[in-house]
Design goal:
alpha/beta; 4-stranded antiparallel sheet; 9 helices; 35% helix; 26% strand
Length: 241
């Protein structure tokens, strides 16, 4: 589904990503872990077209994403849930969701209503809060809204950037359960997460980034058992999912 080869990107003269090669197959949860500053967010932003690639290849379903504007990529089925939620605070929950569904508006009102219903089934608290301003939601509710807003585009690949940041452990557990459910329903997830142990516990495969380079990759269970990965990234925290 997603193929990246020798990707380099950064900000001005600062090169952040250095010859990144990776792939994500349909129906997988693939996680990217690494310390702060490793280039995880830059990688997702480059795939999404928010950061321009300096060189290399990014192919999504055979299409070269490097030639496309960021605004046109969600319509292809590749969406991003940004770090920090970034909901539209002065709009209601349902207005946020409808905004996320703008790429499928031409499919008719019934499709939008079905997508809304699916999000409310996936996140029941959002149905209760649908008329509430997004800025008044709790952090966990805003994260659910950010995820649901992305899913309104009916994507085939959902990229998530640090969905557990700033949330209580019980809320994080629920968020990760939803990510597993998405995969089980046939979706594909590319997950950037600093809580490496929790991410690897639900992922099929993983990549470890360090200073903009992939230094280790493999099945998630192998990475969980890798002593170097344990020492550098896993720590003592663990969330059972």
């Amino acid at each position: 589904m997603l193929r990246i080869r020798n990707l380099e990107a950064g900000y001005g003269k600062l090169k952040v990503l250095k010859h990144i090669s990776m792939h994500v197959d349909a129906g997988e949860i693939v996680t990217i872990i690494g310390a702060n500053g490793a280039g995880k967010t830059t990688l997702l932003s480059t795939i999404a077209g928010l950061v321009k690639a300096a060189s290399g290849e990014i192919a999504f379903k055979g299409k070269d994403l490097r030639t496309l504007a960021a605004s046109s990529i969600p319509a292809l089925g590749c969406v991003m849930v940004p770090e920090g939620r970034q909901v539209f605070a002065s709009m209601s929950v349902e207005e946020n969701l409808l905004l996320g569904g703008h790429v499928v508006r031409n499919q008719g009102k019934q499709v939008l209503e079905e997508l809304l219903g699916h999000q409310y089934d996936l996140f029941p608290i959002l149905r209760e809060r649908k008329g509430q301003l997004a800025g008044t939601l709790s952090g966990g509710e805003q994260q659910m809204l950010a995820m649901a807003r992305a899913l309104m585009a009916r994507p085939s690949l959902v990229m998530m950037d640090e969905p557990s940041t700033g949330l209580a452990p019980l809320i994080v557990k629920g968020i990760f359960e939803v990510i597993v459910r998405l995969r089980d329903e046939g979706n594909t997830v590319l997950l950037v997460e600093q809580n490496a142990k929790a991410a690897l516990a639900i992922a099929d495969r993983g990549y470890v980034l360090e200073t903009g380079k992939v230094i280790v990759q493999g099945p998630a269970q192998d990475l969980l058992g890798n002593r170097d990965v344990q020492r550098a990234y896993l720590g003592r925290e663990k969330i059972e999912v």
